[in-house]
Amino acid sequence: MVGFTTTIPLEVLVAAGRRPVDLNNIFITAPDPQALIEDAEIDGFPRNICAWIKGLYGAVVRHGIDEVIAVTEGDCSNTRALMEVLSLRGTTMIPFSYPHDRSRQAIARQIDQLAEHFSVSRAQIEDARDELGRIRAKVHEIDRLSWEENRVSGEENNFYQLCTSDMNGDVAAYEKQIDAFLEQARVREPRKDSLRLAYIGVPPIVGGLYDVLEEMHARVVFNETQRQFSMPFACADMEEQYLRYTYPYDIFTRLADIQREVARRRVDGVIHYVQSFCFRQIEDLIVRRKLNVPVVTLEGDRPGPLDARGRIRLEGFVEMLKGRKA
Q1: What is the pTM of this model?
Q2: 57, 157, 262, 299: least buried by Cβ within 10 Å?
Q3: Is residue 162 exposed (0-12), middle (13-18) or buried (19+ Cβ within 10 Å)?
Q4: Would you list the domain boundaries of the chain?
Q5: Matching PANTHER family, A to Z (predicted)?
């Protein structure tokens, strides 16, 4: 089992025959994710830092994961410190960086270093990319059924794309799960929602968000970061794939993709989710200036159901959008 702090070139682990584990996923789907945060705080993590980073630490400790790939550039600014603390506990830490300048040579060097660590060749990696590409294409179809045919809920869209970060730790089993879902989703009656929404930013730490929106007859038809996990672009090679993957790069790179998809999917409004104590909160002012559709900012802190304040913000936003369409 190899854990990682955010999406990495998954093909390397699959080629090496190692079980990939996205630490974010095992944290947020834990029976009691709050307990993992408390484990970190008991061990000395401050209360006033992002709950995700504490949850990742707790997940590593609880699951006894002894090898972790830490993305030190292109994700959370606290990852370096997390890497050092886990090293102190004896966890083998493997650094990986997305180059700020999006240099092909730099990303190739990072992929090669990862491949060398896990003793796999480029040919093996390309074979794994073909295998994962087949599965990702099926997830892209789930996404299309969501926004084009209106047969998939916002939560389902979120779930299946989110799981592509590690293929649920079992590539074959996950593909079977996708196949079963597609079989029944394709024959559903199209949904009739009043509003079409986009969700941008990191996946939510709060639960029930999509269900709350659909109670208001508003459905998320675009999950920005989750879609990026599924590698939505046709690419010639690994370097191109991980340079076109927008999440680890600057906000303007992300916004170009967001603007295209907002237009293509006929989105009425955007929910920008920001995590408490995260540097990405600052990017909200850029998002608001650059997008030409209404934006509501939703802040989350710790795991749990959507709170009353968040629900009220969403209710007001949805009512405003309905008024604009009337």
Answers
A1: 0.95
A2: 299
A3: buried
A4: 2-120
A5: 2-HYDROXYACYL-COA DEHYDRATASE, 2-HYDROXYGLUTARYL-COA DEHYDRATASE, D-COMPONENT-RELATED
